[in-house]
Amino acid sequence: MAGRGGLLMLENFIGGKFLPCSSYLDSYDPSTGEVYCHVPDSGEEEVEAAVEAARAAFPGWSSRSPQERSQVLQRLADLLEQSLEELAQAESRDQGKTITLARTMDIPRAVQNFRFFASSTLHQTSECTQMDHLGCLHYTVRAPVGIAALISPWNLPLYLLTWKIAPAIAAGNTVIAKPSELTSVTAWMMCGLLEKAGVPPGVVNVVFGTGPRVGEALVSHPDVPLISFTGSQPTAERITQLSAPHCKKLSLELGGKNPAIVFEDANLDECIPTTVRSSFANQGEICLCTSRIFVQRSIYSEFLKRFLEATRKWKVGIPSDPSADMGALISKAHLEKVRSYIKKARLEGAQILCGEGVDKLNLPPRNQAGYFMLPTVITDVKDESCCMKEEIFGPVTCVVPFDSEEEVIQRANGVKYGLAATVWSGNVGRVHRVAKRLQSGLVWTNCWLIRELNLPFGGMKSSGVGREGARDSYEFFTEVKTITVKH
Ligand SMILES: NC(=O)C1=CN([C@@H]2O[C@H](COP(=O)(O)OP(=O)(O)OC[C@H]3O[C@@H](n4cnc5c(N)ncnc54)[C@H](O)[C@@H]3O)[C@@H](O)[C@H]2O)C=CC1
Ligand SMILES: N/C(=C\C=C\C(=O)O)C(=O)O
């Protein structure tokens, strides 16, 4: 829909209808720095309307059979797939990611999220135990909880939002989704497909706007008993505070400071390209990205030389260039934040071996004001440095040497986060030993980001609370009851 000045103007989606809002936010194209879209700046009033619609839809939707709900999810997956190219173009423009990544990862995964939960929801079973000596049979039943608040970030917009919507509605809940105000377009486009897929009005409502306004109104609403959030740790803390008086059910998927551990027997032909990708994919804006690379001292020089060569070939380009490996960062503020870490590293005496401030970025004139930076490698950095401790969430990675297995486990575990780690070694015993001792919700050995959606996904320590996946999401989005029958 075209709005002011011919720019795209989004609307909230409440009770099956697109509704205008009284005020709007500017949304920027990260590759040019220009405003290209207006996003509703919703608040309490819109949340109240969405709660009303979700409440009205709950009895009908929750009493449908899992098979009926599953068919609706399958149809939605088909419709998203038919719009894959259009959605990929929109995601790439809105977020700054390359069109190639949007085409091959973001949108296919959004489709897969609906297909996956359409299927997995049909295979959930409940428990039963017996106490024959007391003549008792015990079993559990599960029911959808009610209205779920789903809050998602800007890095993988449709991918992460659908990872929440699909299991929530498959289990019979109705939802109010709040995408990031920085990347709202593909969620809005998806709303246009819901009716055709057979999603009844009010089952999926989407309110757009900022965290402090619409986000807080949503998470503190007394009639919204569960919240699934993906984003930063400070926001998770705020959501926890606001929801505490109501004892809401919370699932929090937060940041990481993910280590890659490269032992001397690693296959560097596989490790180097994968570690470049794990450090810089999506501009380093994935919570699973590697940002601390520990390399065993005997291969440190060789690794560093080859890693730098491969990083220099990681092409930064405009998002629509199909040959680009990396596009623009999400916002000016975020680019400045990421760059500030490089400045701090320099002041601490670290070496910046390539990227920011070292190499030159070549961009077309139209993109000079876009939020681009080169993939950057830091060395000679202490474990206590902010670059080794804090989530930068950009194309920046640190490479440091280590001597022993015991030492590297302690150092890898020495941060407040515990989301994802990679271990590179040809020694199977070592791989199992190290993986088991890492404080990390996910460990990939000799690979990265191979996702098995059935199994638990989520972090330890400050990386989150709860897990997502076939069984885990089903348990989160349902309330369990234990029934005892004396016979
Ligand atoms: N999954 C992850 O690990 C992610 C981590 N981050 C980290 O967070 C940093 C800041 O990025 P932000 O976009 O500011 O993340 P954020 O955590 O503030 O935003 C995530 C979502 O939460 C919403 N939100 C913000 N404040 C809220 C509140 N008070 N109540 C309810 N909802 C609220 C936002 O509107 C957005 O939809 C990044 O630099 C990065 O380090 C950001 C996005 C994803
Ligand atoms: N939650 C994030 C990534 C998840 C990836 C996946 O489920 O495959 C993130 O980057 O915030």
Automatic annotation (TrEMBL):
Cleavable signal peptide: none
Protein name in UniProt: 2-aminomuconic semialdehyde dehydrogenase
Superkingdom as given in the UniProt entry: Eukaryota
Localization of this protein: Cytoplasm
Similarity comment: family membership: Belongs to the aldehyde dehydrogenase family.
GO MF: aminomuconate-semialdehyde dehydrogenase activity; retinal dehydrogenase (NAD+) activity
Pathway: Amino-acid degradation; L-kynurenine degradation
Positions of the Aldehyde dehydrogenase domain: 24-483
Organism: Muntiacus reevesi (Reeves' muntjac)
Cited SUPFAM superfamilies: ALDH-like (SSF53720)
Annotated GO CC locations: cytoplasm
Keyword NAD: yes
Assigned EC number: 1.2.1.32
Coiled coil: none
Keywords: Cytoplasm, NAD, Oxidoreductase
Catalytic activity entry: 2-aminomuconate 6-semialdehyde + NAD(+) + H2O = (2Z,4E)-2-aminomuconate + NADH + 2 H(+)
Matches recorded under CDD domains: ALDH_F8_HMSADH
The protein's role, per its UniProt record: Catalyzes the NAD-dependent oxidation of 2-aminomuconic semialdehyde of the kynurenine metabolic pathway in L-tryptophan degradation.
Active site as annotated: 253
One GO BP annotation of this record: retinoic acid metabolic process
